[in-house]
Amino acid sequence: MRNLPDKTVERLSQYRRSLNNQLEKGKTHIFSHEIASLLHITPVQVRRDIMLIGYSGTLRKGYDIKEMVELIGKIIDTSDGQKIAVIGLGNLGKAFIHYLQEKKSKLDIVAAFDINPDKINKSYSDVFCYHFDQIEEVVAAQGIRIGIITTPPEVVTDIAKRLKQAGIKGILNYTPKPLNEQEGVYLEEYDMITSLEKVAYFVKIQD
Ligand code: ATP
After folding, report:
1. Does the structure show a pLDDT above 80 at 81?
2. What is the pTM of this model?
3. CB-CB contact of 32 with 46 (8 Å)
4. Which residue from 16, 63, 88, 190 lies 20 to 30 Å from 178 (Cα-Cα)?
């Protein structure tokens, strides 16, 4: 079950969220075409992903939603959750902490890092903010494996290097400056401005 394509992992997370919504509505079984229409993708894609994780439904009733949610959890969660640090406790970093704390996610933000004296050595929403110079010691002491970078773009390259040295295994880069691949670190870029400009472009050509 190792090394699923990263797009599949992304979709599994999306499937789980929609399936949980369906469970809350009292539904117990679902067909691939229903999942597909909830997520605006093709039923073939859904069936392919579900086959990859070794699950099969019944022809008559479809997939058992509860079983599928549990299976997806076994595949994408770790038993004790994953510890995360936010680097850059500005508006975006704070929003991240707030948002994830509201969710029943196993992803756990356990520390924040910044260099601004007004922000360090105090807690925001129960998450303590350390000086970035303490990154190595805090990551080691708390077993942090993932870093979300929400600093200004100018410093992202140096921060990513330090995160790797500190033992971070996955980086979500929320700045608009792309990072180079670093061996042993899974990298995901999310550039909000690009996504929004893409939407704006397609809205414009509809007019
Ligand atoms: P604020 O005005 O409260 O700082 P902001 O969202 O406008 O919020 P940004 O300029 O985007 O702030 O910076 C985001 C955060 O990143 C800030 O808290 C800033 O202090 C922090 N930051 C800047 N440089 C670094 C760095 N080298 N290491 C860690 N954090 C940094």
Report:
1. no
2. 0.78
3. yes
4. 16
